[in-house]
Design goal:
This protein has twelve helices and eleven strands. The chain is an alpha/beta fold. It has a seven-stranded mixed beta sheet, with helices on both faces. The protein has a two-stranded antiparallel ribbon with strand order 6-7.
Length: 363
């Protein structure tokens, strides 16, 4: 059966808009190393998102890794408290540095890390908390801030799904010591490949800017450990080409989510969004009654040309290479029941209704 409705389909700008930006790159022959397109996109994104200390990087995983390094977490011997219900990059970026993941269970309603399970002795013994805004749903940031106040650890938010998410009319990216974005092709807003970090403090931003350019200071001397994590001008060109239409892209995705939830209200449970925020249209997860129902639904939908994805499965605390540390029965159980339905920028309401009809038939 041919795929009629893929799980995701990257949005692309009008080709002439992209060509205009690419022509500027050809004219300048400035291909990377913080060129004019990179600088323009960085400034415009910061203004659009309502943040101050934003820097672009090559991808979302590097955004996490650079944040750990810039904040001093990467050099610590203490464990990092994190969520088991997230994409693999959340845990793998921690373990890649040789750091120990200590998983904390999630809230059954929001699917985010549960602040009430953060024990004082755990927090005191940790170097950082890395929490994910799951499917774009903001974490209980005030509760996490309260749990960590006055303690010597960093709070880093994996905001890969949280593009343009706001909590009480303020960007969710302004919480914590750093927040990281993925600008991968599958996201609401993308640069084909890309990422960004928003730092709370200017000094951390300036340190990170040197780190992503091999650790060179302004005299081209490597005074600290660095890596090459710079975004190219070609990738910045894609971002600039999409930024002018991002409101329309996101509005269509939000309308699709709303239609799904209306049409399937009697079939599934849905993630509950935190008070003071609204769904940003990043994903369309549903909670099946059981793993058996999920597997049968996937099979039946694929036979009808509808692609789905288990997102996120397995629970990261059950993956051997991440360490198996932490008691997370709720995340382990929920990870077996969550399924994501197709969602992309040009998915129409009529197409969503067709998918929903196929879901009901498949059930």
């Amino acid at each position: 059966m041919a795929i009629r409705f893929p799980i995701v389909r990257p949005v692309l700008p009008a080709i002439d808009v992209y060509q205009k930006h690419v022509q500027a790159v050809f004219d300048s022959r400035w291909l990377t190393n913080s060129g004019p397109l990179h600088q323009s996109l960085e400034q415009r994104l910061a203004e659009y998102l309502g943040v101050e200390h934003l820097m672009l990087v090559a991808n979302g995983t590097l955004a996490l890794q650079v944040a750990y390094q810039a904040l001093g977490v990467a050099n610590s011997t203490k464990p990092v408290l994190t969520t088991p219900f997230s994409f693999a990059a959340t845990a793998s970026s921690i373990a890649w540095h040789g750091l120990q993941c200590e998983f904390v269970d999630i809230n059954q309603s929001s699917l985010n890390i549960a602040p009430e399970l953060l024990k004082p002795e755990q927090v005191d013994a940790a170097s950082a908390i890395v929490a994910t805004h799951v499917f774009g749903n903001p974490c209980e940031v005030e509760a996490i801030a309260s749990k960590t106040a006055g303690r010597d650890l960093k709070v880093i938010y994996d905001a890969a799904h949280a593009f343009n998410c706001r909590l009480n009319d303020e960007s969710i990216l302004n919480w914590g010591d750093a927040s990281t974005l993925s600008l991968h092709a599958t996201k609401i807003f993308h640069c084909v490949e890309g990422g960004a970090i928003v730092f709370k403090e200017l000094d951390d931003l300036l340190r990170a800017r040197e780190m992503i350019n091999f650790g060179f200071n302004k005299y081209q001397y490597p005074e600290q450990l660095g890596i090459n994590a710079k975004m190219s001008e070609m990738h910045a060109a894609m971002g600039l080409s999409l930024l002018d239409t991002i409101d329309d892209i996101q509005a269509q995705r939000i309308e699709a989510v709303s239609t799904y939830q209306t049409e399937l209200a009697n079939e599934f449970e849905f993630q509950h969004w935190v008070d003071g925020s609204s769904n940003n249209g990043a994903y369309m997860p549903v909670l099946c009654r059981s793993e058996q129902q999920l597997l049968k639904l996937m099979e039946n939908l694929l036979a009808s040309g509808v692609q789905t994805r288990r997102y996120f499965y397995p629970s990261l605390s059950e993956v051997a290479c991440y360490g198996h540390r932490g008691d997370t029965p709720l995340a382990n159980e929920i990870s077996r029941r969550v399924l994501c339905l197709p969602l992309y920028g040009d998915l129409t309401v009529e197409e969503v209704k067709q998918i929903c009809q196929l879901v009901k038939e498949a059930l």
